[in-house]
């Protein structure tokens, strides 16, 4: 019997950290999985995803997005960057389906031109921005951020964009504005799952004003030096690296300033599971699973070691003070 686990097709303890004892444990685990029949399913789903990853095309016809390496503290990690094919084929974008491969399969129908983002609510200079004007509003930078999904996996992605603060300062929030609400596109004609009952559409997210103004909060137009592929939230999205991935709303169409904590899509769907803050926190479990560890996509052979999840996803030095004195168990 041929057992395939790794990308190169054989059982391989890739990491030099693996001790002979760990290898032994892996073999034993493999035997256990084989005995229960679980190995076949795990390997089949692994192989399916790998095939999809290999078939994903870069949106090569689209322009490259230049970006200098960011000088914002914390905006660049030295960790190994996730491969483009993984970052663009393993996605959550529920408007295009709930399986990780659905967005890469289905998001080609998303129409990203023309595109406008509306700015409204408690703001002195409301208005509609054409994408080109929005692009030019700030200096494009490359930021290499960890993205930690609430489901327990993570990636390291080089985004291109500028701090959301640059847009917010330009439009001048009114003194009464305490939160920023983000609406994303909900077009049933091009998004097959808008209308499904998993979430209340449009997908809405929100940040407190100081979170939205934090220099790490990125308005992203690209990744890997190129325009965002549709499945990653083209043409413009949010990336909030110290919060669970679902706060990073894709395909933004509206930025609204408000005095009330926004009602977000995931919070409305399951308030006890997805709080407004949703800061990455290894000490606060999701009601159905632990958040203490994570699986790094690309390191996830059947036996890859999990990584320890870091407080605020590793950005504690930069953002910890935003939450000084707050009970983070209550404000999950
Ligand atoms: N509009 C919209 N934005 C979204 C989602 C979504 O379903 N719809 N999923 C979120 C979740 S759960 C995650 S983990 C990230 C994934 O971003 P990526 O596919 O670029 O890695 O997008 C977030 N933004
Ligand atoms: Mo997520």
Automatic annotation (TrEMBL):
Domain Oxidoreductase molybdopterin-binding residues, every copy: 111-266
PROSITE patterns found in the cross-reference section: TAT (PS51318)
Keyword Oxidoreductase: yes
Name of a matching Pfam family: Oxidored_molyb
The record's free-text note on cofactor binding: Binds 1 Mo-molybdopterin (Mo-MPT) cofactor per subunit.
Amino-acid positions noted as binding Mo-molybdopterin in the UniProt annotation, renumbered to this chain: 91, 94-95, 149, 184, 232, 237, 248-250
Gene3D superfamilies linked: Oxidoreductase, molybdopterin-binding domain
PTM note: Predicted to be exported by the Tat system. The position of the signal peptide cleavage has not been experimentally proven.
Top-level EC class: oxidoreductase
EC number from the UniProt entry: 1.8.5.-
Function comment: Part of the MsrPQ system that repairs oxidized periplasmic proteins containing methionine sulfoxide residues (Met-O), using respiratory chain electrons. Thus protects these proteins from oxidative-stress damage caused by reactive species of oxygen and chlorine generated by the host defense mechanisms. MsrPQ is essential for the maintenance of envelope integrity under bleach stress, rescuing a wide series of structurally unrelated periplasmic proteins from methionine oxidation.
NCBIfam families assigned: PRK05363.1
Protein family: Belongs to the MsrP family.
HAMAP family: MsrP (MF_01206)
UniProt subunit comment: Heterodimer of a catalytic subunit (MsrP) and a heme-binding subunit (MsrQ).
Protein name, per record: Protein-methionine-sulfoxide reductase catalytic subunit MsrP
